[in-house]
Write a structure and sequence with these properties.
This protein is of the alpha+beta class. The protein is built from 4 helices and 10 strands, in the order E-E-E-H-E-H-E-E-E-E-E-H-E-H. It has a 4-stranded mixed sheet with strand order 1-2-4-3, with helices on one face.
């Protein structure tokens, strides 16, 4: 529970000629979310991220899906990263570090000693074996088929770390089903980030010998 501290919330509106994304974030939430996202599979992954990270998260997004899904996915990472950076503010008394090992049936996503809210953006994303998740998206009343793979997810997380200024290591160690692999990653991402964002009342100020993050 936060006592005599600012609410760690953020409202972000990112609008370009390609995408329009609104995010409402409360780090100290209960896992409630409302996700209106035109790529249903990824919307579900963001819902799982919020649920297991105990973040209250609303996302309303549109994009030029007639071109591709890349613009929207990458810009969502940018907007989500900006929301966490704003909500964390000066990062006073946070744990700073977090990790998680999350199974999803046969898949195991390991985010080990992986998140460092350091002020230095960095991503390491490795996956044992390839994966390609087919997703179906409505574009001008026509259903189109796209693929979410390692490279596209890497772009999402790269955008997130660039804006949030967080160090993130994701290691997918095994799995057969693409859906399970990606789901394990997003659950682990939520749990690890939640642990890193936690307030430790024993700490004083920013958790760095430099005096800032």
């Amino acid at each position: 529970m936060l006592t005599n501290m600012r609410k760690r919330t953020a409202k972000i509106h990112r609008k370009t000629k390609e995408t329009d994304i609104r995010i409402d974030l409360n780090i100290d939430g209960s896992g409630k979310s409302k996700i209106e996202y035109p790529i249903p599979f990824l919307g579900h992954m963001l819902q799982l991220f919020a649920k297991h990270g105990l973040f209250d998260l609303n996302i309303f997004a549109t994009g030029d899906l007639e071109v591709d899904i890349h613009h929207l996915i990458e810009d969502t990472g940018l907007a989500l990263g900006e929301a966490f950076k704003d909500a964390l503010a000066n990062k006073s008394k946070i744990e700073r570090f977090g990790h998680a090992i999350i199974p999803m049936d046969e898949a195991l996503a390991e985010v080990k000693v992986a998140i460092d809210i350091s002020g230095r953006p960095h991503l390491e994303f490795t996956a044992k074996g390839s994966f390609k998740q087919i997703v179906y998206v409505q574009v001008f009343q026509t259903e189109r088929k796209y693929v979410i793979d390692h490279d596209l997810l890497s772009d999402f997380f790269e955008a997130f770390v660039d804006k949030s200024e967080i160090g993130l290591h994701i290691q997918l160690t095994k799995g057969k089903t693409a859906h399970h692999k990606i789901e394990a990653i997003f659950k682990a991402f939520g749990v690890a980030l939640s642990r890193a964002c936690q307030i430790n009342p024993r700490k004083k100020g920013v958790p760095s010998t430099k005096g800032m993050l």
